[in-house]
Design goal:
Layout: H1 2-14, E1 19-35, E2 38-56, E3 59-65, H2 70-87, E4 104-108, H3 120-135, E5 142-158, E6 163-181, E7 184-190, E8 197-199, H4 204-209, H5 215-227, E9 229-230, E10 234-240, H6 242-254, H7 259-262, E11 292-295, E12 316-321, E13 324-325, H8 332-337, E14 346-347, E15 356-357, E16 362-364, H9 371-376, E17 380-392, E18 398-410, E19 413-419, E20 421-426, H10 427-432, E21 434-437, E22 444-453, E23 458-466, E24 469-478
Parallel strand pairs: 4-6, 9-19, 10-17
Antiparallel strand pairs: 1-2, 1-5, 2-3, 5-6, 6-7, 6-8, 10-24, 11-12, 11-16, 12-13, 14-15, 17-18, 18-19, 18-20, 20-24, 21-24, 22-23
Helix pairs in contact: 1-2, 3-5
């Protein structure tokens, strides 16, 4: 497959491309869903193809094909060069790329048990048992359990001499309890919403989640929410669990610091950013407790790899240091605009798409203490857990997030539960109000497998390592 990628690069160069890279990608997925101890469905898919990207006359051209014959690859390379030359007629500065050393090698994300080799009966039995346990709770309407498997192998070759072969395997699972009564529907998820917790690991990750052990508690909370009061509307102290903090980082920091958005290159579909290039080193993004790092090297993250889709080695890039903006998520093209080294954040959703700047693992660095310590140190406030909805404007400034459940904090203890809680904020005001960030003990590396961006739309798999945190003077209320 690397030979096919090399032949595509050579064909593009013969046709006049100044730079070329080619990715042969093989992808396999499997999703299993069980509802009320019965199979809801098994979805399996696979794809294989090659994407060829070229620079000719200072412009990008891209073409892809699922046919891997030599003649078809040569035709696709020619099409990519023709597209680049057609684009060169537009009035625009020629594309320049940051320098990068060519690399060669092979890499596989770590795992102990290949999830695709686990017998289907064993996977289903675990999910069925989790739903059975949930159904022992009186008043529960639906008990759901799911598992998701993903494998992508990428062969990348570039005209600079890079030739790499890397494989990532992602595995995850989760449960969801749904209670319904008198027109009200309440949901509790474990270990997180939107199909649980996915990691760059094997089936051992699912076994460690404890889905069966947590099933009854999860169902009981869903039923309890039917009787709970609505979350009151007020300005108060807000404590967020680790799962919700992952989404908060994703939407109000990760996307805002993608340099293509900052430079106005990604406005049409997903929006741009309130951050400006000259904010680097100057913008007070958050309180001194807020340090955020993009880390593609950390084991277990969905944004972990050895090389990005431009062949740039995985890196650990500080984005915010003690509250001050210090970096961006970059590509070779955008990094050179600001005189930065390439940040290695270019990835594509399969062979049929151009690489885009995507989050790697955008992590809120831990500080000290535990979630229990933060709650114990809060005289009055609200604790919210598990995301249920999100909304943020296309400049990444104003947001509203909803959670599955909240509790009143009184004198350092969790008391009354609330249903349908939401909170709103303005990005920099919110992060500057942060006065407590938990330590490593409660820090979790969550997987986000459904991050959308680009035209045509692409889905990226990214990670967020985050601890719980506390924020002062936040507007909370009830979901409409």
């Amino acid at each position: 497959m690397l030979d096919l990628a090399r032949s595509a690069v050579e064909a593009a160069r013969r046709l006049g491309a100044d730079h070329a890279d080619a990715r042969v990608v093989r992808e396999t997925t499997e999703s299993i869903t069980v509802r009320n101890q019965e199979m809801e469905g098994i979805d399996r898919a696979s794809s294989e193809g090659i994407g060829i990207r070229v620079l000719a006359a200072g412009r990008w051209g891209f073409a892809a094909t699922a046919r891997l014959e030599e003649a078809e690859i040569a035709r696709t390379a020619e099409l990519a060069v023709r597209i680049a030359r057609a684009a060169s007629r537009l009035p625009k500065e020629p594309v320049r790329l940051a320098e990068v050393e060519p690399v060669t090698g092979t890499w596989h994300s770590p795992m102990q048990e290949d999830p695709f080799a686990v017998p289907l009966e064993r996977k289903i039995a675990l999910l069925v048992e989790a739903t059975r346990r949930m159904q022992t709770v009186k008043g529960l309407a639906f008990a759901e359990a799911s598992a998701d498997l993903f494998r992508r192998r990428t062969f990348l070759a570039t005209s600079e001499g890079t030739a790499v072969d890397q494989t990532v395997v992602h595995t995850g699972a989760g449960i969801q309890a749904i209670a319904v009564a008198e027109g009200e529907l309440q949901r509790r998820s474990y270990p997180n919403s939107f199909r649980g917790h996915i990691a760059a690991a094997g089936w051992e990750h699912v076994e460690r989640l404890g889905l069966v052990e947590e099933a009854e508690r999860t169902a009981a909370e869903a039923v309890e929410l039917l009787r709970a009061r609505e979350c009151p509307s007020e300005v108060t102290t807000l404590v967020l669990d680790s799962g919700q903090m992952g989404l908060q980082v994703h939407e109000s920091i990760g996307h805002a610091l993608e340099l293509d958005r900052v430079l106005g290159m990604e406005e049409a579909y997903a929006g741009s950013s309130f951050v400006r290039p000259d904010d680097l080193g100057r913008l007070r993004y958050g309180s001194p407790l807020v340090s955020v790092t993009a880390d593609a090297t950390i084991p277990g993250g969905l944004g972990t790899f050895a090389w990005d889709d431009e062949g740039v080695p995985a890196q650990r890039v500080p984005l915010i240091v003690d509250g001050v903006l210090e970096g961006f998520l970059t590509s070779r093209e955008t990094a050179v605009v600001l005189g930065l080294r390439s940040g290695g954040a270019m990835r594509a959703d399969g062979w049929q798409h151009l690489p885009l700047i995507r989050m790697t693992n955008v992590n809120l660095e831990p500080r000290e203490g535990t979630l229990a310590d933060i709650i114990g140190d809060t005289r009055d406030g609200i604790f919210m857990a598990t995301n249920s909805s999100w909304s943020i404007d296309d400049k990444r400034v104003n947001f509203q997030f909803g959670c599955e459940i909240a509790w009143r904090i009184k004198h350092g203890r969790l008391t009354e539960p609330y249903r349908n809680p939401t909170y709103t904020g303005v990005t920099t005001e919110f992060w500057n109000s942060c006065d407590a960030v938990a330590g490593r003990e409660d820090w979790t590396l969550w997987g986000t497998p459904n991050c959308g961006k680009g035209q045509p739309g692409q889905i990226a798999r990214v990670g967020h390592g985050v601890p719980p945190a506390r924020f002062r003077d936040v507007r909370v209320g009830v979901r409409g």
